[in-house]
Please model this.
Amino acid sequence: FLRAETQRLDSFIKVFACEKTYQAELGKYKLKCRIDRIDETQEGYEIFDYKTGSKPKQVNTKTIEEIIDENLDRASIKWAVGSLQLPLYKFLFENNEHKKIGKCAIYSIKDAQMFSFAKDCSDKVYDDCMTALKYILDEINSGDFFEFDEGDIGECGHCPFVYICR
Model:
């Protein structure tokens, strides 16, 4: 990990923040999170979420755009995006710091590899992801009985909301 970090020094300026908590509102929802790491580089700001386990899939930007336009539902969002964590981090950082994020990535501690959130990290992709997140929050908050995805049962042990939806 440290060896990989030394290879990033050509554009690296400083670690802007580690384990910093941010809050913002998305419509009627108050969101709060703690971002693992934010770097300032010559290209701008970068967000990293440290992981020790499995590697994430990269977002297919065409697919997220299509589901926003055609078939917005929880299964489609999960299939196209997987995790909305990094778009949420970008949204909260930019709303609080008034600085633009140029890159969001998962940083695998185990093998010191970075996995970019999407091939195309345009604002449109992130805006589409925030639309998807708002859709999911609206579904949870609809007043109807919320049913968790049986395919996610292996993740329940890591989720702080396990007793709410099971």
